Amino acid sequence: MGILDNKVALVTGGARGIGRAIALAFAGEGAQVAFTDIRLGGEADDLAASIRAKGVKAMAIQSDVRDFASTQNAVDAVEKEMQQIDILVNNAGITRDNLLIRMSEEEWDAVIDTNLKGTFNFCKAACRQMLRRRQGKIINIASVVGLIGNAGQVNYSASKAGIIGLTKSLAKEFGSRNIQVNAVAPGFVDTEMTEKLTAEQKKALTDLIPLKRTAKAHEIAAVVKFLASSEADYITGQVICVDGGLTM
Ligand SMILES: NC(=O)c1ccc[n+]([C@@H]2O[C@H](COP(=O)([O-])OP(=O)(O)OC[C@H]3O[C@@H](n4cnc5c(N)ncnc54)[C@H](O)[C@@H]3O)[C@@H](O)[C@H]2O)c1
8-242 falls under which CATH superfamily? Predict the structure, then answer.
């Protein structure tokens, strides 16, 4: 028996990193798991096999979160194959870091379109059935920089602050339909997204974290799993920081 038995979850940008850890955590609790990514390849095949190895259904879907039509197709495919979507995790995200003075319009647009518009797209496409069924959990992956800012990331931190505003507004719109909408704000997590940092930059960052270490993806997934379960039925509109104490 798992805490997500008979639930269907959809995770965006799930082929690697935090999304992958979330997909595996859900499968480990008995959920059927569909995940999207902009490109499907070996990583996605491995993940689908690992999900199935836990005894639940898996579905890998090629979809670009920036494109509403592609998003709607992904949601339709999951609803056709798995009948419903109980849990939506908006995880797909990118960085294009630069100081504002050097940041191009393309860098701004790419990050806002992927992180913020992508979250809007999937919430809009997946909510129809949730509203009809009067149940659902939406978990949006924000970031601590959406709360505290970060030099060199005006695009990324604006997108994540936007996700927090979207989360709170949607929690108010959907509360009466028994749909909980929350955000998880990770601090610094060891994934490909953060691999570009130099050892020096990583040390400077770690020194600021009360727990004196970065996070593993499964530590973010554990909180997402809790928010996706019925244990969290009375939690909505919240931003849960999983950051080793960085933003307290
Ligand atoms: N790693 C960190 O330290 C950290 C910290 C805070 C928040 N986050 C957030 O966590 C989420 C996952 O990050 P990660 O570290 O696992 O990154 P990652 O780069 O390892 O994984 C992101 C995934 O999203 C996919 N993706 C990118 N653009 C897409 C698009 N247009 N459509 C569909 N999929 C797309 C990528 O292909 C990739 O599989 C992101 O929203 C990120 O902003 C990460």
Answer: NAD(P)-binding Rossmann-like Domain (3.40.50.720)
Say how far apart CA 10 and CA 52 lie, in whole Å.
Answer: 15
DSSP for 171-234, written as a single string: HHHHGGGTEEEEEEEE-SB-SGGGTTS-HHHHHHHHHHSTTSSPBPHHHHHHHHHHHHSGGGTT
**Contact criterion met (CB below 8 Å) for 66 and 92:** no
In the set 156, 179, 239, 243, the catalytic residue is 156
Output the CA 65–ligand 1 centroid distance in Å. 11
- Contact present, 161 and 146 (Cβ < 8 Å): yes
**pTM of structure:** 0.98
User: Which residues sit opposite 32 in a β-bridge?
Assistant: 8
Q: How many CA atoms lie within 13 A of 143 on its CB side?
A: 25
Q: Which residue has the tokens 């898996």?
A: 58
> What are the boundaries of each domain within the chain?
8-242
pLDDT at 193 over 90: no
Which residues lie with the beta carbon below 6 Å from any ligand 1 atom?
A: 12-13, 15-19, 36-38, 64-66, 91-94, 114, 141, 143, 186, 188-189, 191-194
11-20, 44-53, 188-197, 225-234: the lowest-pLDDT one: 188-197
Residue pair 10/36 in contact (Cβ under 8 Å)? The answer is yes
